[in-house]
Amino acid sequence: MLSKKTFLGIMSKQYPTLPSLLELTNPVRLLLCCLTFILSGLTHGANNNTEAIIDIADLGTVLPIMDSHTYVDPLKRHNATSITTIAESEWHRHHDKQINLGYTTAKVWIRFTLTNSHSQPISALMDINFPLLDHIQIYRSTASLQEPVLLLQSGDTLSYHDRIIEHPNFALPVVVNPNARDTYYVMLQSTTAIQTQILLWDEKHFYTHYRHASALNFFYFGLLLATALFNLLIFIYIKERVFFYYSAYATCLALFIAAQHGILFELFFFDAPTAHNWSQLIIVSFASTFSALFSRNFLQLTPSEYTHRFLTHAAKLPLPLLLISSLSGHGFAIQVSMLVNFFILSLCYGIGIYRLIHKQPNSGVFVFAWTFLFTGGITYSLAKIGVLPYNTLTSTALQSGSVLELLTLAIALAKNMHSEREARLNAQQTLVEKSQMNVQLQNELIYSSTHNRISGLPNRTFVESWLDNYLRQHKGAPCTLVFFYFSRLHEVSRTLGRETGESALQQFSKHLNELVGSLDNLIPVQPEDGFNIGSMEGATHAFLVNSEASHKVISQITAIQRTINKPISINDILIEPGVQVSLVSSPEFGTQANQLIRHGSIALDAARENKLQLSIYSSDIDPYSERRLGLMSELRRALQCDELTLYYQPIFDVKAQTLRGAEALIRWPHPSHGLIMPDEFISIAEQTGLIHDLSIWVFQTALRQLELWLPKHEHFLLSINVSATNLLEKHFIEIVNRE
Question: Is the entire prediction scored with pTM above 0.85?
Answer without folding.
Answer: no
